[in-house]
Write a structure and sequence with these properties.
Blueprint (H helix, E strand, L loop, with lengths): L1 E6 L3 E3 L4 E9 L7 E6 L6 E6 L5 E2 L8 E6 L4 E6 L8 E7 L14 E2 L3 E6 L1
Parallel strand pairs: 2-11
Antiparallel strand pairs: 1-3, 3-8, 4-5, 4-9, 5-6, 7-8, 9-10, 9-11
Length: 123
């Protein structure tokens, strides 16, 4: 099994920056592609960013240019750098991991999930 623990979420002001971290433990040798999703109250879980083990990345247009995903394989950690935050970025942010190596944008494609970390952006 793989355990994922997110950290870094907090209350910030619009325009601020925030970096989320997600540390993997357990059978980390099985972790390949990783990603970030978010879920706001009353809304479906939304894809935010994905990264392969070799750090090929993909982000949707909704966050491209403001968010960036990176990883440190030696530390089994993936990061989400969020800049120019907006109130509509408020959500619980989830880290996900897959044993497959290809970039993934759908939640069902991931095997492992963290518990989430709350990001609140005030106007």
């Amino acid at each position: 099994q793989v355990q994922l623990v997110e950290s870094g979420g907090r209350l910030v002001q619009a325009g601020d920056s925030l970096r989320l971290s997600c540390a993997a433990s357990g059978r980390t040798f099985s972790v390949n592609a990783m990603g970030w999703f978010r879920q706001a109250p009353g809304k479906e879980r939304e894809f935010v960013a994905a990264i392969t083990r070799r750090s090929t990345t993909y982000l949707p247009d909704s966050v491209k240019g403001r968010f960036a995903i990176s990883r440190d394989n030696a530390k089994n950690t993936v990061y989400l750098q969020m800049n120019s935050l907006k109130p509509e970025d408020t959500a619980v942010y989830y880290c996900a991991a897959s044993s497959d190596g290809a970039l993934k944008t759908q939640a069902v494609q991931y095997n492992y999930w963290g518990q989430g970390t709350q990001v609140t952006v005030s106007s």
